[in-house]
Predict the 3D structure of the following.
Amino acid sequence: MKDLISLHDLTANEVQDLLNLGLKLKKELKSGIPHPILKGKTLGMIFTKSSTRTRVSFEVGMTQLGGYPLFLSSNDIQLGRGETIHDTAKVLERYLDGIMIRTYAHSDVLELAEEADIPVINALTDLLHPCQVLADLMTAYEHKGKLKGLKLAYIGDGNNMAHSLMYGCAKVGMDCAIATPANYRCDAEVTANAKEDFKASGAVLTLTEDPEEAIQNADVVYTDTWVSMGQEAEKAERQKIFMPYQVNKELFAKADSEAIFMHCLPAYRGFEVTEDVIDGKQSVIFDEAENRLHAQKAVMATLMG
Ligand code: CP
Ligand code: NVA
């Protein structure tokens, strides 16, 4: 494993090892046991999109591992003025021990990983958000005591979260049902890859337009914004089309009675989810946010250690 670009690229064992290490590092941190695994190492963090959780959790995580996080906003580095990814990769690999990148085009991250001799971590593209899903799987495990055999229902846009959740569920043997409007289905290539992964794991993937069908017997109910970063111009249209996919009390009641509610955040209350659900007793959104820290420390320690 040189990079973390997509959970599809990892074996089931590699995913499990990252989750186990994340849980171990969390326990150590809470017991005050230091773990300076990346002492003296530097992680460059390129952002061409905004972030709260990703920036803070990577910076804090790198610091806790004894290393140094270097924030590189695309407004300030020459990449934002048109310097090529190739040249950026070749320069940064001379200074850094790893690169984390959040950007629009997934192909840019693939190119960066191909060109740079140091590990590259995908911290969200238009296509995938693997770090979030590692944190989510860790969270589901903590609440349910297992992953294999559970069912996750994702209701909403067939976006980067839906894609990475499909990949993640397949790797840990969780059934996954995705309900999206007809014109907002998941990417065809990601879906085809995910189907292969589900076949290999024996878990079941269901793709539907019906949120009630998807949520039946779900142990984990997941949703995300209807308007991802870069889609702001489509906001009004999307909010109209997605309204029947809102996770509200009535829909949530159709899941397993002990289901947990998850959202990667940031959330838009009154749109993809109502307050009674996201702020209700079964919501674990802040555990997910916390676990970004622990899961990403596992990723950095594994790739850069
Ligand atoms: N969930 C997530 O990635 O949040 P940020 O956009 O705040 O980093
Ligand atoms: N789908 C959202 C996730 C944000 C963490 C977006 O890409 O904006």
Remarks:
- The CA atoms of residues 212 and 251 lie 7 Å apart.
- Residues 51-54, 124, 132, 264-265 surround phosphoric acid mono(formamide)ester (ligand 1) (CB under 6 Å).
- The radius of gyration is 19 Å.
- Strands lie at 42-47, 68-73, 98-102, 120-122, 151-155, 175-179, 205-208, 220-223, 260-263.
